[in-house]
Amino acid sequence: MHLENSPAVAPDGPDAARAEPATGVLLAILIIATLLPRLAVFTLNENLHGDAVARTELAQQWAADPHWIASFKDGAYQFGPLHIYAVGVALWAGLPKEDAGRWVSLLFGVLSVVPLFSLSRRLFGWKSGLVAGLGLAAWGIHIQLSTVAASEALALFLVLCTLAWFARGWEEGRVRPLFAAAFFLNLACATRYEAWLLIPLLTLLLALGDRDRIAAITRAVIFGFACTPFPAIWMEGNETATGSPFYPVQFIQHFHDTWAAAGVGTYGEIGFRLQNLFFWPGTALLTLTPLVAAFGVVGMVSAWRRFPRARWLVWVVAVPTAYFTFRAAVLADFVPLGRFTVNQVGLLLPFVATGFVAVTHRLAQPMRWGLVGVSALLAVALPLWLGLFTYKAEEGTPVTLSPVSPVATNPPAVMHAARVLKEQIAPTGESVVIDADPKYMDMQLAFFSGLPEERLVRVRWKNFDQRFAELRPGYIVRFEGGELEKRADFDSRDHRVQLGEDWYEEILGLRPPMKLYGRVRGPEVPPATGTASDRLNPVSPAN
Fold first, then answer.
1. CB neighbours (10 Å) of residue 256?
2. Residue range 381-401: average pLDDT?
3. Closest listed residue to residue 207, CA positions, set 454, 307, 199
4. Torsion over CA of 138, 139, 145 and 151, rounded to 10 degrees?
5. Residue among 358, 349, 367, 478 at smallest CA distance from 417
6. For residue 347, what pLDDT is reported?
């Protein structure tokens, strides 16, 4: 049997199998190690990044009216429907909206260590699986994604399941594991669109992965067709509803075009492209910590030379990284975010032990253990420091680093405003106008305010004018630089504002960039005299 058709020889050595602890024991250790840091920050973290609030609100709508989501217009918008279903089921089961999606992420975030261990163990041995699992446990950005209602924890779990089954099918040359891989890949595609890239990539790798071309192409064709049900159904549904099978992708691309133009305006053409060129390796170094990330990269190079049957995983890491980097740095039509790198950065973990061996094989044993200790210390200390640094961040570098930190908290000013609405405004029974903030903090404020949607009149929504006329809200929350001040029917004088025919007077209590106003008798109301500090805190607005 030639080398390409042999299983990868584990770097743990020929006697590793005899020394390997029971798989159940190893998995129990890894699950506990992964769960503990996530539970530690679960009570601190809040839904913020990863469209967590928007996804939860869409899931609320689905839970109130369960139905088959066939397209963008059926309640998924630009998001994959599977995560909305999952959070919707959690809401339907009675979990509070602030935590329902977070529990879903915690479940799949912790379970991700199982397919990661399986994949790493199959390719490189149980020690590599153990190191990969411990790396996942301490991975800062994954800790955040496992404790907020974003979709990345679920998506990564499904991708890892796909690759674990794919590795088995690749090694054994059998079709049945490939069907399991295709099943999980369909689910991953139903969660996030970047998983779609794996269908042609894995299919091509299968076609080229065996010297028996007929067998290789046969397996590739079967796998490729098995991966198509969800993409085909989803594209057909979108074409029927919108006229384009790729409408969600086109919708997303519009955002990236806007972000790219803003990025060029902020950093300049060269600065924007250079930043994107080094985004993936920079995110790996920051979130996995420098030593772990470096061992992972070295391990990829070493595995390419030493384990030909593991080269397919190198391609799975390299091709999407190159594709998105090319779009971001050369075409400048894509803006990378930290969470977009999760699949590729996470797949460095199976290579870490191999990289460590490659770097340290000539070092004395005490030095190797010393390097292990330093690596482990950094892997824990850097995420811990980053979490403390970004906790309750409101501006500057902490806000910039917040998306890749293990801790995600809303700006204190926003949460304070939400408490005011919940504790002082909600009991009045009045509805509230929520201004549209350029940084989308209005979404956060509405979500955490505790007010039901029927009492929120959001400037961001298209039916704002209709709802304002119907409800005649008693209060306005205005953001500095928000959309309200751009309206022709809005006027601001001293500490009063006019919206339509109604006047509202400022009420103390909120912090910049927000102001709270309560309705007063109008429409002809003269400007208030004195300063804002002369007036009292909320009372029920005049009828």
1. 17
2. 95
3. 199
4. -120
5. 478
6. 98
